[in-house]
Amino acid sequence: MPNSLKALFDTDREAYAFFMSLPMFTKDQIRANAHQITDRAALSAMAHNASHDALKLEQYEPMFEDETDSEIDLM
């Protein structure tokens, strides 16, 4: 990892714990852009964006399909 992210983790254990709690895809995206992360806010923003992008992946599409019965009248 580039120095900026490592430096953050060396000085902010909560930032490191947050990073370790993230899904693998999100961690990989953060590692790939580690040079852009200098503080906890930047880490949080990048994690949010990476997680959002992950949900757009084809493998997750079934999670968002509407499986409701169109004949059910909710009114």
Describe this structure in words.
- With 75 residues, the protein is mainly alpha-helical.
- The chain is built from four helices and no strands.
- Helix 3 packs across helix 4.
- The longest helix is centred in the middle third of the chain and has 15 residues, at 40-54.
- It is elongated and about 55 Å long.
Describe the structure concisely:
The chain has 75 residues and is an all-alpha fold. It has four helices and no strands.
Task: Describe the protein's topology.
Layout: H1 3-11, H2 13-20, H3 24-32, H4 40-54
Helix pairs in contact: 1-2, 3-4
Could you tell me the mean pLDDT?
Answer: 84
Based on helices, strands and strand pairing, what is the structural class?
mainly alpha
In percent, how helical is the residue content? 40-55%
Shape descriptor:
elongated
Give the strand tally. Answer: 0
Distance between the termini: 54 Å
Task: Give descriptors for this structure.
elongated, 4 helices, 75 residues, mainly alpha
